[in-house]
Design brief:
- By secondary structure, the protein is mainly beta.
- The protein folds into two domains: about 90 residues, Histone H3 K4-specific methyltransferase SET7/9 N-terminal domain; about 90 residues, Histone H3 K4-specific methyltransferase SET7/9 N-terminal domain.
- Helix content is about 0%, strand content about 60%.
- It has a 16-stranded antiparallel β-sheet, with no helix packed on it.
- It is found in: Cytoplasm, Cytoskeleton, Flagellum axoneme.
Length: about 210
């Protein structure tokens, strides 16, 4: 069903409301028979999209409300989350940053609602990857991540004024070859090497005061 403006050819053109055969509804702008411009699309499953369209596809700025209570606000390209946006998950966690072809990809910040801690750094195809900082209430970890886990050299910086340097090592379990699912690797283990005072930055040419 369609109720709204049409052009001389009889195509949906201008503002209109439509009910699709699958039960979804659309209220917004059309151009030459296609959803184009600002509109609200309501899915039968309870999801809805409020934003801009380009030739029937979500494109530009828009907010998508998912049936589980999560939502995405940000850029869309060709029906995909793409560009910059914020996703609020059903459990209250949030991700704010770059998106590429529907995935968290680039630089972004993920905030864990339960603990208040946050991950600030790189993402690749939805996973935490590359240089990053994991910030807790009274300390932070700076290092590299691989596939969502810290790996390699890094340091913990404590608010009380010291740093613990070390590295995360992926240890292989003995007899792992016999396991049916070798993909379930053990958690990387932290091996501390030294503890130092905070490495403070000093302006060039100035000597820091004696301890």
């Amino acid at each position: 069903e369609y109720e709204g403006e049409r052009n001389a050819k009889g195509e949906r053109h201008g503002h209109g409301k439509a009910r699709l055969p699958n039960g979804d509804t659309y209220d917004g702008e059309y151009e030459h028979g296609l959803r184009n411009g600002q509109g609200t699309y309501r899915f039968k499953n309870g999801a809805r999209y409020i934003g801009t369209y380009l030739r029937n596809k979500k494109h530009g700025q828009g907010t998508f409300f998912y049936p589980d209570g999560s939502k995405y606000e940000g850029d869309w390209v060709d029906d995909q989350r793409h560009g910059h946006g914020q996703y609020t998950y059903a459990n209250g966690d949030t991700y704010t940053g770059e998106w590429f072809n529907h995935y968290r990809h680039g630089q972004g910040t993920y905030v864990y609602k339960d603990t208040g801690s946050k991950y600030v750094g790189g993402w690749v195809h939805g996973n935490q990857e590359g240089e990053a900082e994991l910030i807790y209430l009274n300390h932070r970890f700076k290092g590299r991540f691989s596939n969502g886990k810290p790996l390699g050299r890094g340091k913990y910086v404590f608010d009380i004024g010291c740093e613990q340097h070390g590295e995360y090592i992926q240890e292989q379990d003995k007899g792992e070859e016999e396991e049916e699912e070798p993909s379930l690797l053990p958690e990387p283990k932290w091996k501390a090497s030294k503890i130092t005072e905070l490495t403070l930055w000093t302006p060039h040419g100035e000597t820091p005061p004696p301890p």
